[in-house]
Design goal:
The structure is a homodimer of 208-residue chains. Chain A is α/β, with parallel strands linked by helices and 208 residues long. Chain A is 42% helix and 18% strand. At the A-B interface, α1, α5 and α8 of A face α1, α5 and α8 of B. The structure holds a DNA duplex (24 and 24 nucleotides).
Amino acid sequence: MREGHISKSVIRRLPRYYRCLRDLEKDGTARVSSDVLAKSLGFTASQVRQDFSNFGEFGQQGYGYNVSSLLSEIASIIGVNRKHRAVIIGVGNLGRALLNNFKFKNYGFELVAAFDTNKELIGTKVGEVDILDIADMEKGYDENPFEVAILCVPKVCVQDVAKRAAGLGVNGIWNFTNIDLDLDEFDVVVENVHFADSLMRLCYGISE
Amino acid sequence: MREGHISKSVIRRLPRYYRCLRDLEKDGTARVSSDVLAKSLGFTASQVRQDFSNFGEFGQQGYGYNVSSLLSEIASIIGVNRKHRAVIIGVGNLGRALLNNFKFKNYGFELVAAFDTNKELIGTKVGEVDILDIADMEKGYDENPFEVAILCVPKVCVQDVAKRAAGLGVNGIWNFTNIDLDLDEFDVVVENVHFADSLMRLCYGISE
DNA sequence: TAGATTGTTAATCGATTAACAATC
DNA sequence: TAGATTGTTAATCGATTAACAATC
């Protein structure tokens, strides 16, 4: 276990801590113990303390953790307190669902544009966000660079669009396309949301 | 490790095997070794063989695995060769994205209805699927029962709708709501697709 | 002070990898 | 037969849990 290296398992749990603490803060709860936190998340108290100890010492013996300060520690570890610029590529139903309903700014992101090939959409806005021609992605990037590309395009053009985005120098790709991207040549973080894999796990679960 | 128990880690990988084998079959590849399979999935050959040995002996020494028969074995383990009846609850942008674009039948599911509260949608169809009043969910279930409820409703009514669905006796819930459901009292499998958690992991990844 | 709860070390458990006899 | 590759056992690695001294 490398020093300073945080395991995948711990990272997977960070968003759960974040959401839980945010809820506690909203309820006006001032302090929480590893035991209470664990119970409401389905973890063990030991695990909670081990996880936090990866990042520093946030608690106080005999008292527990201060909800607000723990929340802001975790927010800053995840990076949701920053403002990452992102674009949506592909304004179909899913792209529109994200544009209309997803609270990007709650999670450290700002949508700076959306791209599509549909002439009827190009030039219009969804909410505050301009829809631009996907052919102009490179130009759009130069004028107004972004860190993250959100892929909501149809299967056929996924790999091509992904490479173009990675080539521009984005740091991250949020991939909704059910395709595993091959971007080894690029230095880019890919986070997949594979609906099909998720549904197959459910399928297995109910088939047992 | 209980006999006959398959670990979460293995189950997480099953859909990857399935998709990869399906692609190989589509390409007309007749046989594949654990080594080749591993390389294209980013696993180790050892792990592939260990995983498969949870379910039986599918391979042949000196030859490898027959793609078609391995594929159908795995399809039947996951259960995608069955026909599970499902409904979508909440026909907003996301519900519509699923209705229009997601190939449910490729993954062992059949959409038998969708529910919403919007009077303008109720009575219409999206593709082949009728949109019914969510108030009539119980009636709909009696006439035409379903095994899985797909939750795409707004935050405020999630827990209520989830309990109603679980109370009807569905086996599984595919939860897109960013809320952790509390359904301990019910015998129901919940599979979450938490966009927010996924985006936060990406956020962590690019923040490092 | 007594009770509570942390952070950390050690013990356990589970998952991954390595190695290899069996055999196609 | 010789080469390839499985299925499985043993070894390693990593993650979770238990225990407890430190201390608020």
